[in-house]
Design a protein that fits this description.
The chain is an alpha+beta fold and 299 residues long. It contains nine helices and eight strands. It folds into two domains: 215 residues, Metalloenzyme, LuxS/M16 peptidase-like (Cytochrome Bc1 Complex, Chain A, domain 1); 43 residues, no CATH class.
Length: 299
């Protein structure tokens, strides 16, 4: 049966008022992994210690080279990783490399934390050998580009200057000084002078060395352990003897033998909705009395 709507005849709407039967769904159960049993710890002919877990769910692989040093050892690695993302090699432009990533459904990332440096490759398992080879080729043969590096430096410096005008970034940086002092995660960055005076090739050379430094291979794919070891032995190029990782210079918490108040908010400050949150409250550097009886400040 059709009904008239305007100048056209259309079928009537279905009656959706009938309640949909309630379907019972089993609750999600947590799975507790035993770190000693779940992954497989082994070695290769290159004396690398791979950690392997077989992917039994889909055809995706994740391959990581993990180094036990990071920004605490050398703050240039963060900028070096950002710079590499924009470069090509002697035989491929950056655009051609990005197209290969798309065609092979893979992603490459260099993640630099305070204590570690991880080179991650993710994609379809069928493209694992090519993805691995291409990643190491880019690390070894990336072509420095002074113009692109200058643009990166300009962007970084502008972002820093913009943050100086924002309350939250300034407050966040202020909060790192009381517990750590001058050497803290916020100050451990390349200075403007260092950024402008460093040659882009110097940064690229930093990324050539990680495969030749002691590291761990973390692998997750449909491959079994034996196949993974064979792939690493065949594809992963390293020197015969691996160098020791450069030592990190950790951020050390300062001793506080006496109560110190570095910063106090005025009583009318809104610290919940739109205001500035105060991580200093959780630090032992602020005495309880100081948080309860904040001095009035001009605003």
């Amino acid at each position: 049966m059709l009904i008239q709507v305007g100048g056209a005849q259309v079928p009537p709407l279905k009656d959706y008022s009938t309640p949909i039967p309630v379907a019972y769904v089993d609750p999600i159960q947590p799975k507790y992994a035993n770190i000693q049993d779940e992954p497989t710890f082994t070695t290769t002919t290159k004396s690398l210690p791979p950690i392997h877990k077989q992917n039994q769910t889909n055809d995706i692989f994740t391959h990581t080279f993990r180094q036990e040093f990071g920004k605490e050892a050398d703050n240039r690695h963060t900028v070096a990783a950002d710079n590499l993302n924009k470069l090509g090699t002697s035989d491929k432009t950056n655009e051609e490399i990005q197209k290969l990533h798309y065609q092979m459904a893979r992603t490459n990332r260099i993640n630099v934390s305070e204590e570690t440096l991880n080179i991650n490759i993710t994609g379809l398992n069928q493209h694992l050998p090519d993805a691995h080879a291409q990643t190491e080729h880019v690390l070894s043969n990336a072509k420095a580009d002074q113009k692109l590096y200058d643009q990166l430096v300009e962007h970084l410096l502008k972002a820093r200057n913009d943050e100086k005008k924002e309350q939250r970034p300034c407050f966040s940086r202020a909060c790192h000084y009381p517990p750590y002092g001058a050497h803290n995660p916020e100050t451990n960055i390349m200075s403007e002078k260092a950024l402008k005076s460093t040659a882009p090739q110097t940064l690229l050379n930093l990324l050539k060395t990680p495969p030749n430094i002691e590291h761990t291979v973390i692998h997750y794919s449909p491959h079994e352990q034996k196949k993974v070891a064979q792939l690493i032995n065949k594809l992963h190029r390293t020197t015969k003897s691996l160098q020791l990782a450069p030592p990190n210079k950790p951020y050390l918490l300062k001793q506080t033998p006496q109560t110190e108040v570095f910063l106090a908010l005025p009583p009318q400050a809104n610290t919940t909705n739109g205001g500035v949150s105060s991580p200093l409250r959780s630090q032992e550097h602020l005495h309880e009395q100081a948080t309860q009886q904040r001095p009035t400040m001009d605003t």
